[in-house]
Design brief:
Helices cover 60% and strands 14% of the residues. It is of the alpha+beta class. Helix 16 packs parallel to helix 19. The longest helix is centred in the first third of the chain and has 65 residues. Keywords: DNA-binding, Membrane, Transcription, Transcription regulation, Transmembrane, Transmembrane helix.
Length: 773
């Protein structure tokens, strides 16, 4: 069969066009289904991370609760085994046990609390008390030499005095910050394994068809939806070994018992545990079945429709060409010249119209591509920051198309925030951010490479790329360029620009890490101030400074109790200055402010002032501190609240008046405190008063317990005797009422922070220095 020219062209054009249709639908199918598969994987990993976040929040709150509990005076007596007699010891045990019960009953997460004194070997829980010689299983003692100050134990069985339970345990040393050789004991909080299992169950609202469990770094089961798996070790399973060899999150597929299983896992940065989900692969991708079927049916229908339209349009389009060729070759039959001329003009005119429309469409397509480049650039950079694009080779052509030039390695990510005195309107905010991105790219690309995009709300992300140099050198180069950016934006636009800078990393896959570090560094604008470049390298990360500053709050609480306003103001200023100079993070500065106010409220409560009314007057305290933009605002809130509390204490004391009974008791105590047998019972017999009544009077009018008041008098008296150089410590202890020198040494150290010998040397050195001057 002989084809005409139009027939051949139509056949070739149809073949090419149909091929393009098939390829387009195939790529659309592969892209859509592939992306949905990736989204399903990301969803499963996100659920595991949600479990990890819930566990970390609970565990961190537990650690804070444990730290707060261990600062009580009863804990000190128990850990140091510091008692004058057996009555005081068991009285302290009773009070401490009640506090432990209160903590356990008010927090449904806690199963039990254990206190272990290395000094006495005793164990006290919220349900029982075990002496050293009757404790059959002193499991806590094995952790007295543990590394670090705290440790999370995976699921184990613990007997709390009533029953044996499967628990996860947080152990913390006492004192809180102490090396193994100076530890006096341990404090432990037990959380039921069922609590961890419920956290997993709450995240998965319905049965997902698989198993989800948690293992520690030794492959021991921490919690499992199948309770029979507890206490098993899974290290001999190949896919568990693969999980333990990787950090972070991931996914892979294994075949078990002839069935393909999808393994999802994530590693906790806080505990180091792995959260694992094992789901049959068919269950994971079940939601895709309907999508696959629909896309295939749609593709087949579109191909059939395209074929029909294609043949019809092609035959109509190339018909004038057939006629033209027929005329030139004389192959067409003769027709009336006028009619034939008219038909040829109409056919060729239609063909010319088609070609003109093709050129117009091409120009419009080029314009759309040019207009879409900024959006494509924004999308690519955000994918790199979020970790969706991690291979340079796969993204290089997209970068070149949008005009971005990045090297294949050595990346630094920065997060910038714009601001202006008086604020910036949303409209101007977009323009200023656009100007910031342009300035940053212009300065970066003079010597290096990089790109900047608008993140919205006055924030921008800046990505540096370097051709050579080590990590530290490139980090310094980025800082130098950013200083120029700040100068230009201030000089030309009057803007305050604050920039957080992450570390330099070798590979593109680490860009999200640098981006997260830059956001963390930017938060330090609260400490360092606005219009500055803040590097993650310059930030302090040691929480030891925080615990040291927590200790500094003790003297603030004491100044508040004594209503010494000048000292109070000076101590607050010094505390915040120390926090800023120590590069304490904004979150820790806010936490320090909150803890200081809470400690001050305890002082107010000890005076007899209603703390609930005081808290209502302060408003939403947590929200006020959280919204502070800089450390000066936090200091101002703390200072205002503490001055108000000092005023309440003064008002309470002015209303109290005098009490004749207390006026008789205090001189008698100061006269007889040297008697080693002096006690609350003897005092009650002397004045024919109930011991409970005397204790209540002491608390109300001296704001101290009787025993604390007596110890304070004895310690102050011993200070005067210590000034005499040759006087023995044993004799001094006996003269102030201590028959046991060890008890005296312990009490003196507790109240002064020094041993009697150290105090004597300090006083004598001060006197010699004063005399020489």
């Amino acid at each position: 069969m002989k084809f005409s020219i139009s027939g051949k062209v139509m056949f070739i054009y149809s073949l090419v066009f149909i091929t393009i249709i098939f390829l387009t639908f195939w790529l659309s199918y592969a892209g859509t289904v592939g992306r949905l598969e990736q989204d399903l994987k990301n969803t499963h990993i996100a659920l595991l991370k949600q479990i990890d976040d819930k566990i970390e929040i609970v565990f961190r709150q537990t650690e804070r609760d444990l730290l707060n509990m261990s600062q009580e005076l009863e804990y000190v007596y128990f850990m140091y085994d510091s008692y004058d007699d057996a009555a005081q010891k068991y009285s302290n045990f009773f009070g401490l046990s009640n506090k432990l019960k209160t903590v356990v009953h008010t927090n449904e997460l806690f199963t039990s609390i254990f206190l272990y004194s290395e000094v006495s070997g005793d164990i006290l829980t919220d349900k029982t008390y075990m002496k050293r010689d009757v404790s059959e299983d002193n499991w806590l003692a094995t952790y007295i030499k543990m590394k670090g100050h705290s440790k999370w134990l995976t699921t184990h069985k613990v007997w709390d005095g009533e029953k044996e339970q499967d628990v996860v345990t947080l152990i913390r040393s006492y004192p809180s910050i102490s090396s193994p050789e100076y530890r006096k004991g341990l404090v432990a909080i037990n959380i039921s394994e069922d609590v961890l299992y419920r956290m997993i169950k709450d995240v998965y609202e319905e049965d997902h068809g698989g198993h989800t469990f948690i293992i520690d770094d030794q492959a021991n089961i921490v919690t499992h939806d199948d309770s029979t798996q507890l206490y098993k070790n899974l290290s001999d399973i190949s896919y568990i070994q693969q999980i333990l060899s990787h950090n972070g999150s991931g996914h892979f597929t294994v075949k078990m018992e002839g069935i393909e299983q999808s393994i999802f896992y994530t590693a906790s940065n806080y505990t180091g545990w792995r959260i694992v989900s094992v789901i049959p692969k068919s269950k994971v991708y079940q939601p895709l079945e309907s999508t696959r079927s629909l896309m295939i049916a749609f593709a087949v229908g579109m191909v059939l429709l395209a074929l029909t339209v294609l043949f019809y349009v092609n035959r109509r389009t190339f018909k004038p060409l057939d006629r033209l060729v027929g005329k030139m070759s004389g192959a067409l039959k003769p027709v009336h010249p006028e009619h034939e001329s008219m038909r040829s003009v109409v056919g060729l005119g239609y063909l010319e119209t088609v070609f003109d429309q093709m050129f117009v469409d091409r120009e419009q397509l080029e314009k759309q591509v040019r207009d879409s480049k900024p959006v494509l650039k924004w999308r690519i950079i955000l994918d790199m920051l979020s970790g969706y694009r991690t291979e340079y080779a796969s993204v290089r052509h997209h970068l070149e198309f949008t005009g971005i030039h990045l090297f294949s390695e050595r990346f630094v990510v920065c997060t910038a925030e714009i601001g202006k005195e008086g604020g910036v309107s949303p409209k101007d905010e977009t323009l200023y951010t656009y100007a910031l991105c342009n300035v940053a790219e212009e300065l970066m690309n003079m010597e290096h490479s990089g790109a900047a995009v608008d993140l919205g709300a006055g924030f921008a992300a800046i990505v540096f790329s370097f051709a050579e140099g080590d990590m530290e050198q490139n980090h310094l180069r980025a800082l130098a360029v950013l200083e120029l950016v700040l100068d230009v934006m201030k000089r030309q636009f009057g803007l305050q620009v604050t920039i957080g800078v992450g570390r330099c990393y070798q590979d593109m896959k680490d860009i999200p890490i640098s981006y997260e570090e830059s956001q963390k560094a930017l938060q330090y604008k609260m400490v360092i101030g606005r219009h500055s470049v803040i590097s993650i390298e310059d930030l302090g990360t040691d929480n030891q400074d925080y615990y040291r500053m927590i200790k500094m709050t003790d003297r603030i609480a004491e100044a508040l109790k004594q209503t010494e306003n000048e000292k109070l103001e000076g101590y607050i200023t010094e505390l915040f200055q120390e926090a800023v100079n120590g590069s304490l993070s904004p979150d820790l500065i806010k936490q320090l402010s909150y803890d200081l106010i809470m400690k001050s409220l305890q002082v107010v409560a000890s005076v007899g002032i209603n703390t609930e009314e005081t808290l209502e007057e302060m408003g939403n305290l947590h929200q006020r501190i959280h919204q502070c933009d800089n450390w000066q605002d936090a200091q101002r809130i703390v200072k205002t609240i503490l001055e108000r509390l000092a005023g309440k204490i003064e008002g309470k004391r002015s209303q109290r008046g005098n009490n004749k009974t207390i006026d008789k008791l205090l001189p008698y105590i100061r006269e007889h405190y040297r008697d080693s047998g002096f006690s609350l019972e003897l005092l009650s017999e002397k004045f024919q008063l109930n011991p409970t009544y005397i204790s209540k009077l002491f608390k109300e009018y001296t704001e101290k317990n009787f025993i604390d008041y007596l110890i304070e008098i004895r310690i102050n008296a011993s200070k005067e005797l210590l000034v005499v150089k040759n006087r023995k410590i044993n004799d001094i202890a006996e003269r102030v009422g201590y028959t046991n020198t060890r008890s005296y040494l312990r009490a003196f150290k507790k109240y002064t922070g020094m041993t009697p010998t150290e105090y004597r040397e300090w006083v004598l050195e001060s006197e010699e220095k004063a005399a020489s001057e």
